[in-house]
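Worked problem 6 (solution included).
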Amino acid sequence: MTYCVGMRLNRGLVFMSDTRTNAGVDNFASTRKMFHWCVPGERAITVMTAGNLATTQAMISLLEERFKASEDRDPSILTQPTMFQVARLVGATLKEVIAYSAPSGPDSADQFSASVIVGGQIKGGQPTIFLVYPEGNFIEISEETPFFQIGEAKYGKPILVRAYDAEMPFEDVLKLLLVSFDSTVKSNLSVGLPFDVHVYEEEAFHCDRTHRIEQDDPVYNEIASKWGDALKTAFDLLPDYKV
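Solution. The predicted structure is:
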């Protein structure tokens, strides 16, 4: 399982993903689920993946191959003129991989299913984020839907819905996301640390503000501990409901 969040703010974009993969409750492993493509001064693109690991790794490998290889292997993620076209390319590549991997049969593609968050900015356009479905189609982030989640989304969503504010500074957004991820980790063993983080400020056109949050990260552990204490305090302050 996976948990990834892509969030748009007035200052830019924030992405966070876990790294856990597993084949059972006693067999945990980690793999990267966040990937970047950057041309300094021109574009910055981030992709996060959830779903069948073979599918997502094949999709990323194809995207990598097509921008590193010779010209006759276009289309490339680094030559698309807009983020909309980048989302179309990612969707087409995902659909291609699933169709190639799945045997025949109406339900066979489900076991190879995957979903993707792709976001960033290309010079001349605004920073934005898309949610790409296994069928290759996608939707774009909006004021009404300012963040996308993929993977194990239900445990971490309530705090995002209650506390999100487009005017939040990046530091507060990271605290908010860490609380969301901590809630998910404590509810589902298939989501776990390390977490990968990328902060993108509008018009920056680079991918250098990235960080990995490890199990022993003191700030994360303090946030998790204090959030748990704050919940208990808030619960004690609620009025009794007598029947």
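Discussion: The mean pLDDT is 93.
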